[in-house]
Amino acid sequence: MLEKKGNFNMERVIQEFDEVTRNASRVQRDTLKMILEENGDTEYLQGLGLGGRTDIESFRACVPLVTHHDLEPYIQRIVDGDTAPILTGKPVTSISLSSGTTQGKPKYVVFNEELVHNTMQIYRISYAFRNRKFPIENGKALQFIYGSKQFKTKGGLTATTATTNVYRSHQFKSTMRDIQSQCTSPDEVIFGSDFQQSLYCHLLCGLLYADQVQFVSATFAHSLVVAFQSFEKDWEELCRDIKTGVLSSRITNPSIRNAVSAILRPDPELADSIYRKCEGLSNWYGVIPELWTNAKYVYGIMTGSMEHYTRKLGHYAGRLPLVCAEYGSSEGWIAANVDPLTPPDTANFVVLPDIGFFEFIPLRGSGNCALSEPIGLTEVQVGEEYEIVMTTFAGLYRYRLGDVVRVEDFYNSTPRLKFICRGNLILSINIDKNTEKDLQLAVDEATKLLSAEKKLDLLDFTSHADMASDPGHYVIFWELNTDAKDEVLQNCCDCMDRTFIDAGYVGSRKTGTIGPLELRVVERGTFRKVLYHYLSRGTSVGQFKTPRCVGPANKVVLEILNGHVIKRFSSMAYD
Ligand code: AMP
C-alpha cells in the first residue's frame, strides 16, 4: 500500500511518472520548448540563429552536436566572472567539477538551481519505486557521502563537485527528510576536509544510530567498498570509542571532533555487542545486516565501471539486496531505476522525458565512418546501442556526454537503458579498438581463474596502451588482496590477451604489430594512492571512479602505478 509521508506522496509521484512516460514524445517537445524559451536569449543560442524558435526541427537544423571541448571557451568566460547570459538565461549559481577520472583532469560544467530541482525530482521518483518494494519507516540512512574541497574561481563563483553543490543546497535537506534518508552523520562529517576522518566518523555515527538505520548507501559502490575495508581495520578502535564515550585521537579536525563528540556517550553495552558480532563474522561476510539489523538494502550506483565492486560489496551485504541508484552525470540527470529488485548486472534505467531533451546517436555499423544522425528518445530501437546526446536546463545544447547505452525495452513510451560504457575509453594501439566494456570482460574472464584460489580477490584494475615500447602493447595493472602464485597470474595474463577478440587486436597480435599483453601486479594500497591523488585535486570520494584506462598524459597516475609494481607477466606468443 502506498502512502503519504511528510510532504511526499509516493502514489502521486508514481502516477505522475507514469503519465509523463506514457506521453514521452509530447513531453520531449514541451521540455525542449521550455529549455529554449528560458535560454533563447543567451549568446550561444542567439549566435546559432535560432531566432526564438523552439521546435525540434529548427533546433536540430541550427544547433550543432558538441563535446565539452567545444563549450570550454563559453564556460571559461562564466568561470572568469562574465555574468552576461552566455549559456543560460538564469544566473549560474556555481561551477561543478566532474570527476574527470576518465580524462585525467576535471571538467568545468555550469551548475544552477534547475539541476538541484532535477536532482530532487529523480531522488523522489527512484525512492517511490524503491519504497514500494522495501518500505521504510521513520528511519535514518548510513550514507557515505562527502563534500569535496571548494574554491572560488577568478570570477568569484564557487567551484566544487556536483554532489557537493547538491548536498549544500537547501532543497537537499528537506527532500532527504521527506524521503526518509537523513544521514546518520552531522554535516561537519559530510563536509569535513579530511576524507579519512570523515569516513571514520561516518562509521562511528552509523554504529551509534545502528537500530535506526534503514539502508546503507553511497553515490558510487566504490565508496561503500572503501568504507567497509576501513571498517575491517578500525572496528576495534570504533568499539573503544563507543565504550568510553571518547572520540579517537585520530580525529583532529576541530569541527568534526566537536560535532561527533556531542553525540558520543559511553555505551559499553552497544560496544560489547558490536565487538561480539564482529568477532563472530567469517571474513566479514554479511557485516552490514549483522550490525545494522534494520537495514533493508544497500544502495548506490553499481553499474558500469562500478560493477567490479559489487562482488566485494555483496560479500559485506550478505543477505541484503544491492539496489542500483539512478543514472546521471555532473552535466545532468538522465534516468531512474524503477525496478529496485533487479541485480546490478541486469539493472536498467528509465529515461525521464521531462528532465532534459535527449537524442541518441546510433552506433551500429558506425565503425570509423562519419557519425550517424541522432534520433529522438521515442525513436530508438530495442537491442541497439547509442551514444547519448543531452540538452539541459543548465546550458548544454546537443551535448555529447560520451556514454554508450543499449535500449533494453520501453517503459510506457520511454526507453529503458542499460549503461554499457564510457564511449571514449578506448584501448587502441593501431587498428584495434577496445572499450571499457571489453576490458571489463577480459578482466572478468581472467578473475574466474583467481576464484579457484581461496580468498584471492582482485581489488582494483586499470589499463594503459603502452606506445613507448616497440611494438606497442596493452598493460593491465592489478591490485590483489593477497599474494598469488606466479603460475596463476601467468594464466590470467594469457587469458586476458585471448579475451580481447576484436578483429583489429587479434590480427595485430598475430602479425606482431601489437606486442604481448603485460600484466603488472601492484602493491596493496596502490589504488588508494591513486584515489588520494584525485582527492588532492578536488575530486570527492563520492564521485570518484577508478580510471579504467590511463592515457599517456595522465603522468602522475602512471607514475604511481609503475612505482609500485611488484610482479610482471607477459602473455605467451599468439598463434
Ligand atoms: P561525473 O563525471 O562524476 O559526473 O560522472 C558521470 C558519469 O558516471 C556518467 O557519464 C557515467 O559514465 C557514470 N555513471 C553515472 N551514473 C551511472 C550509472 N547509474 N551506471 C553507470 N555509470 C554511471
UniProtKB/TrEMBL annotation:
Q: Which organism is it from?
A: Carex littledalei
Could you name the domain of life of the organism this protein comes from?
A: Eukaryota
**GO-annotated molecular function:** acid-amino acid ligase activity
Native organism taxonomy? Eukaryota, Viridiplantae, Streptophyta, Embryophyta, Tracheophyta
Q: Which UniProt keywords apply?
A: Ligase
A Gene Ontology cellular component where this protein is annotated is: cytoplasm
Show the InterPro entries listed in the entry: GH3 (IPR004993), GH3_C (IPR055378), GH3_M (IPR055377)
- Residues forming the GH3 middle domain are 349-422
This protein's name = Putative indole-3-acetic acid-amido synthetase GH3.5
Similarity comment: family membership: Belongs to the IAA-amido conjugating enzyme family.
Occurrences of domain GH3 C-terminal (ranges):
437-550
